[in-house]
Amino acid sequence: MVDFVHEALLYRDDEQYLTGTVPFVRDGLAAGEPVLVAVPQRGIDLLRGALGGQADLVEFLDMRRAGRNPGRIIPGVLSTFTNHAAEAAANGRVRIVDEPTWPDRTELEYPACVQHEALINTAFEDRPAWILCPYDTANLTPEAVRDAEATHPIVVEGEHRRPSTHYREPYLIAEEFNRPLPAPPPDAITRGFDLDALAATRRLVAGFATEAGLSADQVEDLVLAVNELTTNSVVHAGGFGTLFLWREGGVVVCEVRDAGRIHNPMVGRRNPGVNARGGYGVMLVNLLCDLVRVHTRENGTTIRVYVG
Q1: Cα–Cα distance between 251 and 256 in angstroms, integer?
Q2: Are 150 and 173 in contact, with CB atoms under 8 Å apart?
Q3: Residue 272: CA count within 13 A, CB half-sphere
Q4: How many angstroms separate the Cα of 272 from the Cα of each of 21, 33, 42, 86?
Q5: Which residue from 4, 36, 257, 1 is spatially nearest to 152, judged by alpha carbons?
Q6: Angle CA 183–184–190, to nearest 5
Q7: Which residues are 293's β-sheet partners?
Q8: Per residue in 253-296, pLDDT tens?
Q9: Burial of 285 (0-12, 13-18, 19+ CB in 10 A)
């Protein structure tokens, strides 16, 4: 029987954080359930200290690195762990502490965080997983706390556990946060592309990223990501599109616009499977880039990626 649970843990200090997370982890270990803790490093340090020797039985990931791009978390963190750990689970279920939203997330990152939290409910609805998501209510905005209640069916505060009266359908939340992106800067490089221009587009991105100081691996990741997006535009969105390219400090930003529409918000967050004819492109982009933002509408789609 599928037993999927998705909870928001609202905490105000370290004591409340540990009160909510330590029993959750220990109960999972006692039940023979594999446990992943994917939170910022400070939370990892707190939990390791509280768990003592049991910490060696837990997989830890620094979410500021593994989940820097919120769109990467479902395919690259949660699903990866679940797929590998489920066979070892005594009852088939895994437990995950997942903290994707922290106080210094930027305004650009935040909509992707909310979409991620909403779409967990779709991605795992048929999988045996118990996911607990801590929210630092002392430092997050009131809007972030309200969004936590909208994206989690269950809310935990201290020793109290209650259904969220503000929970909403995941796709409605995903559409609410399908928000327009700020305009590219006036000095951004702008190039149209079609099938014949794909190779030249790759060379342009590689040269720009190299001159901007990205490492060889980062350049390779960015070129591969942009190639996936531009190829998708050619194959699935009318045969052409527009590329924008610029720098923000040490980060290279590429934006691809085309006339297509992404109808399913799970695109890029779920592995389409070995028998699928396509669908890997946006997921690969999410895995490669430090941030991916998508704005899709009836008359076209914009996908912006950040590497650096």
Answers
A1: 16
A2: yes
A3: 13
A4: 32, 26, 34, 19
A5: 4
A6: 130
A7: 304
A8: 999 999 999 999 999 888 776 555 556 789 999 999 999 999 99
A9: buried
Full set of structural domains in the chain with CATH:
5-176 (3.40.50.300), 189-307 (3.30.565.10)
Tokens of 68: 């820097």
Question: Among all chains, which residue has been given the structure tokens 């990467």?
Answer: 72
Report yes or no: 261 and 294 within 8 Å, Cβ to Cβ: no
Q: What are phi and psi of 275, to 5 degrees?
A: -95, 0
> Burial, 4: exposed, middle or buried (Cβ in 10 Å; 0-12, 13-18, 19+)?
middle
User: 133 with 100: CB under 8 angstroms?
Assistant: yes
What single string gives the DSSP state of each residue in 117-153? Answer: HHHHHHHTTTS-EEEEEEEETTTS-HHHHHHHHHH-S
Produce one character per residue of 28-51: b if its CB has 16 or more CB atoms within 10 Å, e if not.
beeeebbbbbbbbeebbebbeebb
Structure tokens at 181: 């992106």
Q: What's the pLDDT tens digit per position in 177-235?
A: 999 999 999 999 999 999 999 999 999 999 999 999 999 999 999 999 999 999 999 99
Cα–Cα distances in angstroms (integers) from residue 171 to residues 101, 114, 167, 281, in the given order: 19, 11, 12, 21
User: How far, CA to CA in Å, does 113 sit from each of 26, 52, 143, 168, 173?
Assistant: 27, 31, 13, 16, 11
* Helix/strand/coil percentages in the chain, nearest 5: 45, 25, 30
Residue 1 pLDDT class (50, 70, 90 cuts): very low
* pTM listed for this prediction: 0.93
